[in-house]
Design a protein that fits this description.
Helix content: 40-55%
Number of strands: 16
Structural class: alpha/beta
CATH topology of the largest domain: Rossmann fold
CATH superfamily of the largest domain: Vaccinia Virus protein VP39
Number of domains: 4
Mean pLDDT: 93
Shape: globular
CATH architecture of the largest domain: 3-Layer(aba) Sandwich
Radius of gyration: 23 Å
Strand order of the largest sheet: 3-2-1-4-5-7-6
CATH class of the largest domain: Alpha Beta
Strand content: 15-25%
Number of helices: 23
Largest sheet: 7 strands, mixed
Distance between the termini: 59 Å
Protein backbone atom coordinates (compact mmCIF):
# COMPACT_ATOMS: atom_id res chain seq x y z
CA UNK A 1 0.00 0.00 0.00
CA UNK A 2 1.33 3.41 -0.95
CA UNK A 3 2.22 5.74 1.88
CA UNK A 4 0.50 9.11 2.03
CA UNK A 5 3.73 10.86 1.00
CA UNK A 6 3.98 8.71 -2.18
CA UNK A 7 7.78 8.81 -2.01
CA UNK A 8 8.08 12.57 -1.48
CA UNK A 9 10.43 13.81 1.24
CA UNK A 10 8.33 14.69 4.30
CA UNK A 11 10.67 14.04 7.24
CA UNK A 12 11.96 17.61 6.97
CA UNK A 13 9.97 20.71 5.98
CA UNK A 14 10.80 22.59 2.79
CA UNK A 15 12.57 25.95 2.87
CA UNK A 16 10.37 29.08 2.92
CA UNK A 17 11.29 30.49 -0.48
CA UNK A 18 9.70 33.25 -2.55
CA UNK A 19 9.08 32.95 -6.31
CA UNK A 20 8.46 36.28 -8.02
CA UNK A 21 7.35 34.67 -11.29
CA UNK A 22 4.16 33.28 -9.74
CA UNK A 23 2.86 36.61 -8.41
CA UNK A 24 -0.21 37.99 -10.22
CA UNK A 25 1.51 41.18 -11.35
CA UNK A 26 4.39 39.23 -12.92
CA UNK A 27 2.04 36.83 -14.69
CA UNK A 28 -0.20 39.65 -15.95
CA UNK A 29 2.78 41.66 -17.19
CA UNK A 30 4.25 38.64 -18.98
CA UNK A 31 0.90 37.93 -20.64
CA UNK A 32 0.64 41.54 -21.80
CA UNK A 33 4.19 41.55 -23.21
CA UNK A 34 3.32 38.35 -25.11
CA UNK A 35 0.21 39.95 -26.64
CA UNK A 36 -2.49 38.19 -24.61
CA UNK A 37 -5.06 39.94 -22.45
CA UNK A 38 -4.31 39.26 -18.76
CA UNK A 39 -6.84 39.12 -15.93
CA UNK A 40 -7.75 42.57 -14.59
CA UNK A 41 -5.90 42.80 -11.29
CA UNK A 42 -7.76 45.97 -10.32
CA UNK A 43 -10.92 43.89 -9.91
CA UNK A 44 -11.52 40.94 -7.56
CA UNK A 45 -9.83 37.80 -8.87
CA UNK A 46 -9.10 34.28 -7.65
CA UNK A 47 -5.67 32.68 -7.32
CA UNK A 48 -4.58 29.09 -6.57
CA UNK A 49 -1.09 27.85 -5.68
CA UNK A 50 -0.92 24.07 -6.28
CA UNK A 51 1.84 22.63 -4.10
CA UNK A 52 2.40 25.87 -2.18
CA UNK A 53 4.96 24.48 0.27
CA UNK A 54 5.27 26.74 3.29
CA UNK A 55 3.07 29.25 1.49
CA UNK A 56 5.29 32.32 1.73
CA UNK A 57 4.67 33.46 -1.85
CA UNK A 58 0.95 32.77 -1.43
CA UNK A 59 0.89 34.97 1.68
CA UNK A 60 2.58 37.82 -0.17
CA UNK A 61 -0.04 37.53 -2.93
CA UNK A 62 -2.83 37.72 -0.33
CA UNK A 63 -1.30 40.74 1.42
CA UNK A 64 -0.53 42.74 -1.72
CA UNK A 65 -3.88 41.89 -3.34
CA UNK A 66 -6.40 42.03 -0.46
CA UNK A 67 -9.30 42.06 -2.92
CA UNK A 68 -8.24 38.64 -4.28
CA UNK A 69 -9.50 35.24 -3.15
CA UNK A 70 -6.24 33.37 -2.54
CA UNK A 71 -5.87 29.61 -1.99
CA UNK A 72 -2.81 27.50 -1.24
CA UNK A 73 -2.89 23.71 -1.52
CA UNK A 74 -0.27 21.30 -0.19
CA UNK A 75 -0.41 17.68 0.93
CA UNK A 76 2.15 18.17 3.73
CA UNK A 77 0.43 19.16 7.00
CA UNK A 78 3.64 20.74 8.34
CA UNK A 79 3.65 23.19 5.43
CA UNK A 80 -0.03 24.02 5.84
CA UNK A 81 0.41 24.56 9.58
CA UNK A 82 3.31 27.00 9.01
CA UNK A 83 1.39 28.97 6.39
CA UNK A 84 -1.78 29.18 8.48
CA UNK A 85 0.14 30.32 11.53
CA UNK A 86 1.82 33.17 9.64
CA UNK A 87 -1.49 34.12 8.01
CA UNK A 88 -3.13 34.31 11.44
CA UNK A 89 -0.33 36.45 12.84
CA UNK A 90 -0.77 38.86 9.93
CA UNK A 91 -4.60 38.75 10.15
CA UNK A 92 -4.87 37.90 6.45
CA UNK A 93 -8.50 36.86 5.94
CA UNK A 94 -8.48 36.49 2.14
CA UNK A 95 -6.21 33.44 2.06
CA UNK A 96 -6.96 29.79 2.78
CA UNK A 97 -4.45 26.98 3.04
CA UNK A 98 -5.83 23.49 2.49
CA UNK A 99 -4.13 20.17 3.17
CA UNK A 100 -4.99 18.23 0.02
CA UNK A 101 -3.33 15.92 -2.48
CA UNK A 102 -3.59 16.48 -6.21
CA UNK A 103 -5.87 13.46 -6.41
CA UNK A 104 -8.19 15.11 -3.87
CA UNK A 105 -8.22 18.34 -5.90
CA UNK A 106 -9.00 16.38 -9.03
CA UNK A 107 -11.93 14.56 -7.46
CA UNK A 108 -13.32 17.40 -5.32
CA UNK A 109 -17.07 17.74 -5.66
CA UNK A 110 -18.52 20.55 -7.71
CA UNK A 111 -18.93 23.64 -5.59
CA UNK A 112 -16.31 22.58 -3.05
CA UNK A 113 -13.74 24.90 -4.62
CA UNK A 114 -14.04 28.08 -6.68
CA UNK A 115 -12.91 28.54 -10.24
CA UNK A 116 -9.67 30.49 -10.61
CA UNK A 117 -8.33 33.30 -12.79
CA UNK A 118 -4.73 32.35 -12.02
CA UNK A 119 -3.35 28.91 -11.18
CA UNK A 120 0.32 28.29 -10.48
CA UNK A 121 2.47 25.28 -9.63
CA UNK A 122 6.13 25.99 -9.07
CA UNK A 123 8.74 23.24 -8.87
CA UNK A 124 6.23 20.40 -8.66
CA UNK A 125 5.55 18.86 -12.05
CA UNK A 126 8.80 16.92 -12.47
CA UNK A 127 9.02 15.89 -8.82
CA UNK A 128 5.78 13.90 -8.62
CA UNK A 129 4.56 10.61 -10.09
CA UNK A 130 2.98 10.51 -13.56
CA UNK A 131 -0.37 9.76 -11.92
CA UNK A 132 -0.12 12.82 -9.71
CA UNK A 133 0.91 14.92 -12.69
CA UNK A 134 -2.31 13.83 -14.41
CA UNK A 135 -4.31 14.74 -11.30
CA UNK A 136 -2.71 18.18 -11.18
CA UNK A 137 -3.49 18.91 -14.81
CA UNK A 138 -7.02 17.55 -14.38
CA UNK A 139 -7.52 20.02 -11.50
CA UNK A 140 -6.42 22.82 -13.81
CA UNK A 141 -8.82 21.56 -16.48
CA UNK A 142 -11.74 21.73 -14.07
CA UNK A 143 -10.90 24.89 -12.12
CA UNK A 144 -9.29 27.40 -14.53
CA UNK A 145 -11.66 30.04 -15.88
CA UNK A 146 -11.81 30.84 -19.61
CA UNK A 147 -9.15 33.48 -20.24
CA UNK A 148 -7.30 32.36 -17.11
CA UNK A 149 -3.54 31.91 -16.88
CA UNK A 150 -1.69 28.87 -15.56
CA UNK A 151 2.02 28.72 -14.70
CA UNK A 152 3.95 25.43 -14.62
CA UNK A 153 7.66 25.10 -13.90
CA UNK A 154 9.72 21.93 -14.18
CA UNK A 155 13.12 20.42 -14.87
CA UNK A 156 13.85 19.81 -18.55
CA UNK A 157 15.51 16.69 -19.95
CA UNK A 158 17.86 18.73 -22.17
CA UNK A 159 19.69 20.08 -19.11
CA UNK A 160 19.39 17.14 -16.73
CA UNK A 161 19.93 13.97 -18.79
CA UNK A 162 23.41 13.31 -17.38
CA UNK A 163 22.22 13.86 -13.82
CA UNK A 164 19.45 11.23 -13.92
CA UNK A 165 21.63 8.22 -12.87
CA UNK A 166 23.49 10.26 -10.25
CA UNK A 167 20.26 11.53 -8.77
CA UNK A 168 18.97 7.96 -8.57
CA UNK A 169 22.16 6.96 -6.78
CA UNK A 170 21.70 9.84 -4.31
CA UNK A 171 18.19 8.61 -3.55
CA UNK A 172 19.46 5.06 -2.93
CA UNK A 173 22.22 6.32 -0.62
CA UNK A 174 19.72 8.40 1.35
CA UNK A 175 17.41 5.41 1.78
CA UNK A 176 20.32 3.38 3.10
CA UNK A 177 21.08 6.02 5.72
CA UNK A 178 19.33 5.88 9.12
CA UNK A 179 19.41 9.68 9.34
CA UNK A 180 16.73 12.23 8.50
CA UNK A 181 16.88 13.32 4.86
CA UNK A 182 18.62 16.67 5.38
CA UNK A 183 21.09 15.18 7.86
CA UNK A 184 21.90 12.41 5.38
CA UNK A 185 22.70 14.93 2.61
CA UNK A 186 26.40 15.58 3.45
CA UNK A 187 27.14 11.86 3.56
CA UNK A 188 25.34 11.31 0.26
CA UNK A 189 27.33 14.06 -1.46
CA UNK A 190 30.60 12.87 0.08
CA UNK A 191 30.02 9.35 -1.27
CA UNK A 192 29.31 10.69 -4.76
CA UNK A 193 32.56 12.67 -4.58
CA UNK A 194 34.44 9.55 -3.47
CA UNK A 195 32.98 7.64 -6.40
CA UNK A 196 34.05 10.37 -8.81
CA UNK A 197 37.50 10.52 -7.20
CA UNK A 198 37.86 6.76 -7.55
CA UNK A 199 37.75 7.18 -11.32
CA UNK A 200 34.16 6.17 -12.11
CA UNK A 201 33.99 6.47 -15.90
CA UNK A 202 30.48 7.94 -15.88
CA UNK A 203 31.85 11.24 -14.55
CA UNK A 204 34.56 11.26 -17.19
CA UNK A 205 31.95 10.74 -19.88
CA UNK A 206 29.94 13.69 -18.48
CA UNK A 207 32.48 16.33 -17.37
CA UNK A 208 29.79 18.99 -16.83
CA UNK A 209 28.54 17.03 -13.83
CA UNK A 210 31.39 18.43 -11.73
CA UNK A 211 30.04 21.99 -11.88
CA UNK A 212 26.49 20.73 -11.35
CA UNK A 213 27.48 18.86 -8.19
CA UNK A 214 29.49 21.85 -6.97
CA UNK A 215 26.36 23.98 -7.29
CA UNK A 216 24.36 21.37 -5.37
CA UNK A 217 26.77 21.58 -2.44
CA UNK A 218 26.08 25.32 -2.08
CA UNK A 219 22.38 24.74 -1.36
CA UNK A 220 20.58 24.38 1.96
CA UNK A 221 20.47 20.70 3.00
CA UNK A 222 16.66 20.87 3.30
CA UNK A 223 16.45 22.14 -0.27
CA UNK A 224 18.78 19.38 -1.50
CA UNK A 225 16.64 16.74 0.23
CA UNK A 226 13.45 17.97 -1.42
CA UNK A 227 15.12 18.58 -4.77
CA UNK A 228 17.00 15.29 -5.23
CA UNK A 229 15.97 12.64 -2.72
CA UNK A 230 12.32 12.03 -3.66
CA UNK A 231 11.23 8.74 -5.16
CA UNK A 232 9.90 10.52 -8.23
CA UNK A 233 12.21 12.81 -10.17
CA UNK A 234 11.36 13.02 -13.85
CA UNK A 235 12.85 15.77 -16.05
CA UNK A 236 10.33 16.47 -18.80
CA UNK A 237 10.25 17.61 -22.40
CA UNK A 238 8.26 20.71 -23.31
CA UNK A 239 6.27 18.90 -26.00
CA UNK A 240 4.98 16.37 -23.47
CA UNK A 241 3.82 19.03 -21.02
CA UNK A 242 2.33 21.23 -23.75
CA UNK A 243 0.51 18.24 -25.20
CA UNK A 244 -1.07 17.45 -21.83
CA UNK A 245 -2.05 21.10 -21.40
CA UNK A 246 -3.80 21.09 -24.77
CA UNK A 247 -6.17 18.53 -23.31
CA UNK A 248 -6.89 21.12 -20.59
CA UNK A 249 -7.78 23.61 -23.37
CA UNK A 250 -4.68 25.62 -22.49
CA UNK A 251 -2.09 26.75 -25.02
CA UNK A 252 1.46 27.87 -24.35
CA UNK A 253 1.89 31.63 -24.79
CA UNK A 254 5.46 32.13 -23.56
CA UNK A 255 7.94 31.94 -20.72
CA UNK A 256 7.67 33.67 -17.35
CA UNK A 257 11.48 33.85 -17.53
CA UNK A 258 11.32 37.02 -19.62
CA UNK A 259 14.69 36.81 -21.46
CA UNK A 260 13.62 33.45 -22.90
CA UNK A 261 11.03 35.30 -24.99
CA UNK A 262 13.84 37.24 -26.72
CA UNK A 263 15.52 35.01 -29.31
CA UNK A 264 18.69 37.12 -29.53
CA UNK A 265 19.63 36.31 -25.92
CA UNK A 266 18.01 32.91 -25.45
CA UNK A 267 19.72 30.73 -28.09
CA UNK A 268 23.10 30.68 -29.86
CA UNK A 269 23.34 33.11 -32.78
CA UNK A 270 23.35 30.37 -35.41
CA UNK A 271 20.35 28.63 -33.85
CA UNK A 272 18.13 31.72 -34.01
CA UNK A 273 17.48 31.41 -37.79
CA UNK A 274 16.26 27.83 -37.24
CA UNK A 275 13.75 29.14 -34.71
CA UNK A 276 12.65 31.85 -37.11
CA UNK A 277 11.72 29.33 -39.80
CA UNK A 278 9.79 27.11 -37.39
CA UNK A 279 6.09 27.81 -36.88
CA UNK A 280 5.07 24.79 -34.84
CA UNK A 281 5.29 25.93 -31.17
CA UNK A 282 6.19 22.50 -29.80
CA UNK A 283 9.03 22.07 -32.28
CA UNK A 284 10.15 25.66 -31.77
CA UNK A 285 10.39 25.37 -27.99
CA UNK A 286 12.11 21.98 -28.24
CA UNK A 287 14.71 23.54 -30.55
CA UNK A 288 15.14 26.35 -28.05
CA UNK A 289 15.68 23.88 -25.18
CA UNK A 290 18.21 21.86 -27.18
CA UNK A 291 19.90 25.06 -28.36
CA UNK A 292 20.59 26.38 -24.86
CA UNK A 293 20.66 23.04 -22.98
CA UNK A 294 17.64 24.22 -20.98
CA UNK A 295 17.50 22.95 -17.40
CA UNK A 296 14.38 24.62 -16.04
CA UNK A 297 11.28 26.00 -17.70
CA UNK A 298 8.68 28.45 -16.39
CA UNK A 299 5.83 27.99 -18.84
CA UNK A 300 2.81 30.28 -19.07
CA UNK A 301 -0.42 28.90 -20.58
CA UNK A 302 -3.76 30.55 -21.28
CA UNK A 303 -7.19 28.95 -21.46
CA UNK A 304 -8.32 30.32 -24.77
CA UNK A 305 -5.67 32.09 -26.81
CA UNK A 306 -7.25 35.13 -28.42
CA UNK A 307 -4.51 37.71 -29.07
CA UNK A 308 -5.42 41.26 -28.14
CA UNK A 309 -6.30 43.65 -30.95
CA UNK A 310 -3.28 45.75 -31.89
CA UNK A 311 -4.63 49.12 -30.68
CA UNK A 312 -5.62 47.70 -27.29
CA UNK A 313 -2.24 46.05 -26.75
CA UNK A 314 -0.44 49.22 -27.87
CA UNK A 315 -2.38 51.31 -25.37
CA UNK A 316 -1.76 48.87 -22.52
CA UNK A 317 1.91 48.54 -23.33
CA UNK A 318 2.38 52.31 -23.25
CA UNK A 319 0.75 52.33 -19.80
CA UNK A 320 3.02 49.57 -18.46
CA UNK A 321 4.88 51.04 -15.47
CA UNK A 322 7.86 49.77 -13.53
CA UNK A 323 9.41 50.83 -10.22
CA UNK A 324 13.12 50.86 -9.43
CA UNK A 325 14.29 48.42 -6.75
CA UNK A 326 17.29 50.43 -5.62
CA UNK A 327 19.84 48.00 -7.05
CA UNK A 328 23.15 49.68 -7.76
CA UNK A 329 24.29 49.49 -11.37
CA UNK A 330 27.64 47.74 -11.83
CA UNK A 331 30.51 49.55 -13.47
CA UNK A 332 30.24 49.18 -17.21
CA UNK A 333 26.46 48.95 -17.23
CA UNK A 334 23.75 46.59 -16.00
CA UNK A 335 24.22 42.86 -16.53
CA UNK A 336 21.43 40.37 -17.15
CA UNK A 337 21.41 36.60 -16.75
CA UNK A 338 20.13 34.91 -19.89
CA UNK A 339 20.09 31.32 -21.20
CA UNK A 340 23.26 32.25 -23.12
CA UNK A 341 25.06 33.62 -20.08
CA UNK A 342 25.35 37.17 -18.77
CA UNK A 343 24.85 40.03 -21.20
CA UNK A 344 25.57 43.70 -20.59
CA UNK A 345 22.98 46.31 -21.52
CA UNK A 346 23.88 49.12 -23.89
CA UNK A 347 24.79 52.11 -21.69
CA UNK A 348 23.09 54.65 -23.97
CA UNK A 349 19.71 52.98 -23.25
CA UNK A 350 20.00 51.49 -19.79
CA UNK A 351 21.86 54.18 -17.89
CA UNK A 352 19.22 56.88 -18.61
CA UNK A 353 16.41 54.44 -17.76
CA UNK A 354 18.04 53.51 -14.46
CA UNK A 355 18.55 57.20 -13.68
CA UNK A 356 14.83 57.77 -14.27
CA UNK A 357 14.00 54.84 -11.99
CA UNK A 358 16.01 56.38 -9.14
CA UNK A 359 13.19 58.91 -8.88
CA UNK A 360 10.50 56.26 -8.57
CA UNK A 361 8.38 54.87 -11.40
CA UNK A 362 8.67 54.97 -15.18
CA UNK A 363 6.06 54.00 -17.78
CA UNK A 364 6.80 52.82 -21.31
CA UNK A 365 5.19 56.04 -22.55
CA UNK A 366 7.54 58.15 -20.43
CA UNK A 367 10.52 56.14 -21.62
CA UNK A 368 9.55 56.61 -25.26
CA UNK A 369 9.37 60.36 -24.70
CA UNK A 370 12.78 60.53 -23.01
CA UNK A 371 15.84 61.65 -25.00
CA UNK A 372 17.47 58.23 -24.56
CA UNK A 373 14.59 56.36 -26.24
CA UNK A 374 13.15 58.99 -28.55
CA UNK A 375 12.77 57.52 -32.02
CA UNK A 376 13.54 53.98 -30.91
CA UNK A 377 11.09 51.22 -31.86
CA UNK A 378 8.58 50.19 -29.19
CA UNK A 379 9.87 46.60 -29.30
CA UNK A 380 13.37 47.79 -28.34
CA UNK A 381 12.06 49.69 -25.31
CA UNK A 382 9.93 46.70 -24.28
CA UNK A 383 12.98 44.45 -24.45
CA UNK A 384 14.85 46.90 -22.22
CA UNK A 385 11.97 46.89 -19.73
CA UNK A 386 11.86 43.07 -19.82
CA UNK A 387 15.56 42.75 -19.08
CA UNK A 388 15.46 45.36 -16.30
CA UNK A 389 12.60 43.42 -14.69
CA UNK A 390 14.27 40.04 -15.14
CA UNK A 391 17.58 41.40 -13.85
CA UNK A 392 16.04 42.61 -10.60
CA UNK A 393 16.67 46.29 -11.31
CA UNK A 394 12.96 47.07 -11.63
CA UNK A 395 9.55 45.48 -11.15
CA UNK A 396 6.11 46.10 -12.68
CA UNK A 397 3.69 47.82 -10.33
CA UNK A 398 0.19 46.79 -9.35
CA UNK A 399 -2.77 48.86 -10.63
CA UNK A 400 -2.75 52.22 -8.83
CA UNK A 401 0.57 51.28 -7.26
CA UNK A 402 -1.04 49.43 -4.37
CA UNK A 403 -4.21 50.24 -2.45
CA UNK A 404 -4.59 51.48 1.12
CA UNK A 405 -5.92 48.05 2.09
CA UNK A 406 -2.87 46.45 0.49
CA UNK A 407 -0.52 48.72 2.40
CA UNK A 408 -2.25 47.86 5.67
CA UNK A 409 -2.13 44.11 4.92
CA UNK A 410 1.55 44.29 3.96
CA UNK A 411 2.31 46.16 7.16
CA UNK A 412 0.72 43.36 9.18
CA UNK A 413 2.53 40.66 7.19
CA UNK A 414 5.88 42.43 7.51
CA UNK A 415 5.39 42.74 11.26
CA UNK A 416 4.62 39.01 11.37
CA UNK A 417 7.76 38.29 9.32
CA UNK A 418 9.88 40.34 11.72
CA UNK A 419 8.32 38.55 14.71
CA UNK A 420 8.95 35.14 13.13
CA UNK A 421 12.57 36.06 12.41
CA UNK A 422 12.98 37.26 15.99
CA UNK A 423 12.01 33.70 16.92
CA UNK A 424 14.71 32.17 14.69
CA UNK A 425 12.75 31.84 11.42
CA UNK A 426 14.52 32.51 8.11
CA UNK A 427 12.31 34.88 6.07
CA UNK A 428 14.72 37.48 4.64
CA UNK A 429 12.13 39.42 2.60
CA UNK A 430 9.50 42.14 3.05
CA UNK A 431 6.21 42.45 1.16
CA UNK A 432 5.73 45.52 -1.05
CA UNK A 433 2.17 46.66 -1.85
CA UNK A 434 3.43 48.79 -4.74
CA UNK A 435 4.96 45.99 -6.79
CA UNK A 436 2.88 43.07 -5.46
CA UNK A 437 6.06 41.21 -4.63
CA UNK A 438 8.89 41.36 -2.10
CA UNK A 439 11.94 43.45 -1.47
CA UNK A 440 14.86 41.12 -0.96
CA UNK A 441 17.30 41.81 1.83
CA UNK A 442 18.40 39.89 4.87
CA UNK A 443 16.97 38.91 8.23
CA UNK A 444 18.53 41.95 9.91
CA UNK A 445 16.72 44.27 7.50
CA UNK A 446 13.39 42.63 8.36
CA UNK A 447 14.11 43.10 12.07
CA UNK A 448 14.92 46.80 11.60
CA UNK A 449 11.81 47.24 9.47
CA UNK A 450 9.76 45.50 12.15
CA UNK A 451 10.98 47.96 14.79
CA UNK A 452 10.15 50.93 12.54
CA UNK A 453 6.72 49.51 11.67
CA UNK A 454 6.05 49.09 15.38
CA UNK A 455 6.64 52.80 15.86
CA UNK A 456 10.22 52.84 17.08
CA UNK A 457 12.25 55.93 16.02
CA UNK A 458 14.91 55.63 13.34
CA UNK A 459 17.68 55.98 15.92
CA UNK A 460 20.87 54.01 15.33
CA UNK A 461 21.82 53.52 18.97
CA UNK A 462 18.35 52.52 20.14
CA UNK A 463 17.81 50.15 17.21
CA UNK A 464 21.24 48.59 17.70
CA UNK A 465 20.51 47.86 21.36
CA UNK A 466 17.14 46.31 20.52
CA UNK A 467 18.55 44.21 17.68
CA UNK A 468 21.39 42.82 19.79
CA UNK A 469 18.81 41.66 22.32
CA UNK A 470 16.66 40.09 19.59
CA UNK A 471 19.65 38.34 18.00
CA UNK A 472 20.65 36.96 21.38
CA UNK A 473 17.16 35.65 22.13
CA UNK A 474 16.90 33.96 18.73
CA UNK A 475 20.28 32.28 19.06
CA UNK A 476 21.76 34.10 16.05
CA UNK A 477 25.41 35.07 15.82
CA UNK A 478 26.85 38.36 14.65
CA UNK A 479 29.37 37.32 12.02
CA UNK A 480 32.37 38.80 10.26
CA UNK A 481 33.94 36.94 7.33
CA UNK A 482 31.50 34.06 8.03
CA UNK A 483 32.87 33.67 11.57
CA UNK A 484 30.99 34.40 14.83
CA UNK A 485 32.05 37.61 16.59
CA UNK A 486 32.25 37.18 20.39
CA UNK A 487 33.65 40.52 21.52
CA UNK A 488 30.67 42.68 22.69
CA UNK A 489 32.20 45.91 21.40
CA UNK A 490 32.82 44.42 17.96
CA UNK A 491 29.32 42.94 17.89
CA UNK A 492 27.76 46.29 18.64
CA UNK A 493 29.87 48.11 16.05
CA UNK A 494 29.00 45.60 13.30
CA UNK A 495 25.27 45.77 14.02
CA UNK A 496 25.34 49.58 14.31
CA UNK A 497 27.08 49.84 10.93
CA UNK A 498 24.46 47.57 9.35
CA UNK A 499 21.63 49.64 10.86
CA UNK A 500 23.23 52.89 9.67
CA UNK A 501 23.63 51.53 6.15
CA UNK A 502 20.01 50.42 6.05
CA UNK A 503 18.70 53.76 7.33
CA UNK A 504 20.81 55.66 4.82
CA UNK A 505 20.50 53.53 1.70
CA UNK A 506 17.57 51.15 2.09
CA UNK A 507 15.04 53.28 3.93
CA UNK A 508 14.25 55.52 0.92
CA UNK A 509 13.70 52.44 -1.28
CA UNK A 510 11.48 50.74 1.31
CA UNK A 511 9.39 53.90 1.62
CA UNK A 512 9.10 54.32 -2.13
CA UNK A 513 7.88 50.73 -2.45
CA UNK A 514 5.32 51.09 0.33
CA UNK A 515 7.05 48.75 2.78
CA UNK A 516 7.47 51.60 5.27
CA UNK A 517 5.41 54.76 5.61
CA UNK A 518 6.75 58.22 4.95
Amino acid sequence: MAKWDEGYVTDVAYTSNFYREITPVWLATTSLLLGHRPPDLAKPFSYADLGCGNGFTTLVVAATCPHADVWGFDFNPAHVEFANRLADRASLRNVRFVEASFAALDTAQDGALPDFDLMVSHGVLSWISPDNRQHLIAAVTKRLKPGGLVYLSYNVTTGWAAMVPVRRLMRMLALASPDRSDIAVPGVLDFVDRLKGAGALFFQAHPNLESRLADVRKQDARYIAHEYLNEHWHPLMFADVAGEMLEAKCRYIGSATLPENIDTVSVPTNVAPLLAETRDPMLRETLRDVGCAQSFRRDLYRKGTVPMPGPEQQMRLHELTIAGLGVAMPEGGPTFATPMGNVTGRPEIYQPLLSMLEGGQVSVEQALQSPACAGRPLVEVLQAFSLLIAGGYAHPILPDGGTTAGRDACRRLNLAIAQANANAADLPRLASPVIGSVVGGDVLETLVAGELLAGEPADIEALTTELLEVLGRSGRNVQRDSQPVTDPTDRRRIVAEAVATMLEKRLPVLRRLGVLGT
